[in-house]
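tool=predict chain=A
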Amino acid sequence: MPTLAKSLSKTINQKISKLPKSEIRAFSQDISQIPGIIKLTVGEPDLKTPEHIKKAAMDDIARDDSHYAPEAGKEEYLNAVSKYLNDSLGVSYDPKGEICATVGVSEALNVSIMSIINPGDKIIVPTPVWGVYFGIIEMAGGIAVQVDTSANNFILSPEMLRDTLENEGKGAKAIIMTDPSNPTGRVYSKEELTALAEVICDYNLFALSDEIYAELIYGHKKHYSLAQIIPERTILLSGLSKNFAMTGWRIGYIAAPSEIMKTIIKVNSFMITSVTDNVQIGAAEALENGEQDYVEARAIYERRLHIVQTGLEKNGFKMATPEGAFYVFAQIPDKFGQDDVAFAKDLAVKAKVGVVPGSYFGKGGQGFVRLSYASSDENLKLAVSRISEYVKDTLK
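tool=predict ok
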């Protein structure tokens, strides 16, 4: 096996070298070695991609659709995204210049952030949040300014945002909103978004709105988007990974005003050239004919949420009621202390249940753990039972 020349070892990109790996994936991989462990760590649906979506993609392959797609995406997919956003949110995006196909939302975030910030620009990030945001911002040369929302039931208030923009976030270029939230499952109301939009306008910010879990909202809650309130400032990011169980397909999209979209498409073309043909055709089929798919998935996840939430609360865990996505962000019982990493490791070893330490999600996450309920009912019931026994045994 080749070894890198010593004379080159110090010439590689030092910024990238200093970035830590994804703590969530690293932790999940480490505990995978434990025999019989139930992992509730990675946010990936256990459901199967619906058959009609797979058939559309396979039919496209059979038609020899195997050439480079347009840089912004195939016409079929862009039209489907445009119609879907109009039907679901009442927002209007022209498929010819205001929508771009991406390799999932992760790539959409990279492209969007690279398109709007210059080195040293600040981006406001309400926390706890998916930790990958921090690495993406740093790679682009930006500075993430965390805003701890734990004191407000994990909802960013206008007062919090305004205070941050007057102090450590002064001069910020943008804000990233995740709604519904990963890891907390919290959902913003129309009134809450409207109040935040006023501050965003006052301070002349871009609003990056990550809405990957938009179709997975429970009870009487409804999804609203900043794109409905301040479309002239919003870069909407979403995809099909979660709602259609298509994580491995790696398909997402960006919707934004044409003026910034020109830059986004340029950056996207440099990064990936174009998104895979048959994946876009499958995704178009999902958006056009798949409403029942995510309605059924939503019912399954809501049932599973009840299993996990009820079981944890009986054992002394507290949480802000999850309203969307498929995560529970639970506060560790006081008797265990605040070291969430130590707690998660001990739970994995002794109870054979894998959860993610809350501190991996930024400020406000310490003393919490995240559990994904995108797993079978049987696994979740067994995991809750094991946690219950662990709590009883540890607190004797």
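The first helix runs from residue 14 to 18. Residues 186 and 342 are 26 Å apart (CA to CA).
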